[in-house]
Specification:
Strand order of the largest sheet: 1-2
Structural class: mainly alpha
CATH superfamily of the largest domain: GntR ligand-binding domain-like
Radius of gyration: 19 Å
Shape: elongated
Largest sheet: 2 strands, antiparallel
Number of domains: 2
Strand content: under 5%
Helix content: over 70%
Order of helices and strands: HHHEEHHHHHH
CATH class of the largest domain: Mainly Alpha
CATH architecture of the largest domain: Up-down Bundle
């Protein structure tokens, strides 16, 4: 019951934000929104609810999140207005499943390439990133970022330029999802256990094992998001 109320409040907040942008013209295309504290106070909602609402509007093409800079109104707003009745079909859990299915397509192949092409120095760096992620998680720090750095090190070690350019795009979407997911603890436990296995196969340069371990890892994440 509480979850239903929370979802409805997110939709109402997204609706209000859209009105402020389009109907009232308070934020012009390309302009930056106020920071989370200011905006959540103005809308009288929690920061979590605000993030969910922003995520809905990002999915609709109304807002853009620019890493390290903040949230901006899109330069070109979508034609035909915002269909708030469709928001239920754009919940983070659904979009997250699509995103991780995309990762399932290319990351197992990427880790197999890393087994072939990584230098000893690159394998050492991947191992350091894995240990750093474990340390940060134990300190209750920003473990999602550390986990992304671990996967980014694998991407770089694949020496495939197209994958290097694709990962930041996917990574940006992962960041949005991790801000609002309710299964962070379970995702952390999954990441810690699976990363150790992936790393073991990588250090052995076992392509088939690493590919399989990465596939299982992403399937674990998909199952966690659906739980």
């Amino acid at each position: 019951m509480g979850e239903t109320k929370k979802v409805k409040l997110s939709e109402r907040t997204a609706d209000r934000l859209y009105e402020m942008i389009v109907d009232e013209g308070r934020y012009a295309p390309g302009s930056k929104l106020p920071n989370e504290n200011e905006l959540s106070e103005e809308l009288q909602v929690s920061r979590t609810t605000l993030r969910e609402s922003i995520s809905f509007l990002v999915a609709q093409g109304v807002l853009e999140i620019r890493r390290g800079r903040g949230t901006f109104v899109a330069e070109e707003l979508p034609a035909g207005g915002l269909d708030l009745t469709a928001l239920a079909g754009l919940r983070s859990r659904v979009r997250a499943k699509d995103l991780f299915e995309m990762r399932l397509i290319f990351e197992p192949a990427t880790v197999a390439l890393a087994c072939q092409r990584a230098s000893d120095e690159e394998l050492d760096m991947i191992q350091k990133k894995a240990k750093r992620m474990e340390r940060i998680a134990s300190e209750d720090g920003d473990w999602p970022l550390a986990d992304q750095e671990f996967h980014w090190a694998i991407i770089k070690a694949s020496h495939n330029e197209y994958m290097r350019h694709l990962y930041p795009i996917i990574n940006s979407a992962v960041n949005e999802i991790m801000q609002i997911t309710g299964n962070r603890q379970q995702m952390l436990e999954t990441a810690l256990e699976d990363n150790r296995i992936i790393l073991e196969f990588l250090l052995q340069r076992d392509e088939a094992g690493a590919r399989h371990a990465m596939s299982i890892h992403i399937r674990h994440l998909i199952n966690t998001l659906q739980a």
